[in-house]
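agent> Task received from the user: take the single chain below, predict its 3D structure, and emit structure tokens. No templates, no multimer pairing.
agent> Plan: (1) validate residues, (2) run structure prediction, (3) serialize to tokens, (4) report one or two observations.
agent> Step 1 OK, no nonstandard residues flagged.
tool_call: predict_structure(input=
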Amino acid sequence: MTPAKLVFKNLTRRKGRFVFTLLGIVIGMGSFVTFMALGGSLKGQIEQESAALGANLVVTPKGSCAYEQVSILTGEQLPTTITAQEVEAIRSIPGMTAIPYLAERSAIDNRPVSVMGVLPAETLAFKGWKIASGSYFDSKDTQGAVLGSILAEQFGLAAGGEVRIRGEQIPVLGVLSETGGKDDLTVFLSLPVAQKLYQQKDNVSYVAVQVDKLDEVDLYAQKIQEKVSLGVVSDKQMLKQVLSIVGTVNVTLQLIAAVAILAAAFGIVNTMMTATYERKREIGILQAMGATRGGIFRLFLLESGVYGLLGGIGGAVLGTAASILAAPYIAQNAATSFVKGSQTSADPLMLIGAVLFSTLVAMVSGLYPAWKASNLSPVEAISYE
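)
tool_result: status=success, residues=385
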């Protein structure tokens, strides 16, 4: 009998044990793949949103922390304490373009959505949007909404329809072309309409600033702070701070995955140790037939490796499916919005790496049982009942 056939026979000898041990590995590796898939795209998503913001400087309420900076990139609701007078003071500084935004939240079909109040003409030029269907705001007082492409598709909305915001039916003017960022998941209202709807008077959430001379960003930030008592952060500083915060989410996901894999590894150790004691007589017969200690060691190591290989393949499939299904239902908050908004996809290299890692972990877990089996004395093994 070949080693491959012997391994297959031994694995399936106790079908229940085989299935439950394999399930432990599949679930452990599935958790690993799920968390890595969800967390792996965080950095790229953050950098993409930072670039889509199109600002060299961001003016935030005084005393705001990095949490608010995360919310700016994710479209979360923000404090609205920047007054119209402060906005005008910022816009009066020559050599830069300042665009105010009002970031709020609403719900469509009981699902939360981002609502953004914008100055229509200025924001269109600032963002470089294109209209996929319908029309854009005629003026800053236009009563209507322009929708992001993905949001319109998700809720079956189109130009000529209506969307309910804060209890009011707002006509849909048009739908933006896909941008690849959070704008695709946002309802846009003209700033005066949004301020009235959310009872914010003339206040806004933050101001995005583009400067004419990039090498003088710090000078412009100083000029803004001389004009108003608000927080000012550069796009690079904000990106660095946001990455440091959201990076903790990625680390947490990886630690949880590590615990799941560790539990699966102990399951393999337990199964292989049990198999070693149950198959003492078989080991003795193999030794009597000329099998060396090295051969028996490799045989048991191969069995544990097969567990890892099959479990890794199953875990890769399960984890990929789980990450795709779970992403839309992750609780919406500043730390996890990037996961929720990102397009989770299966990275072939990550999946191959997961299968190889599963096999390696399984083989390491099988080292002690394999050593134990190979060191049985022939007399002890063959006389075992």
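agent> Step 4: summary for the user.
Residues 54-234 form one domain.
agent> Done.
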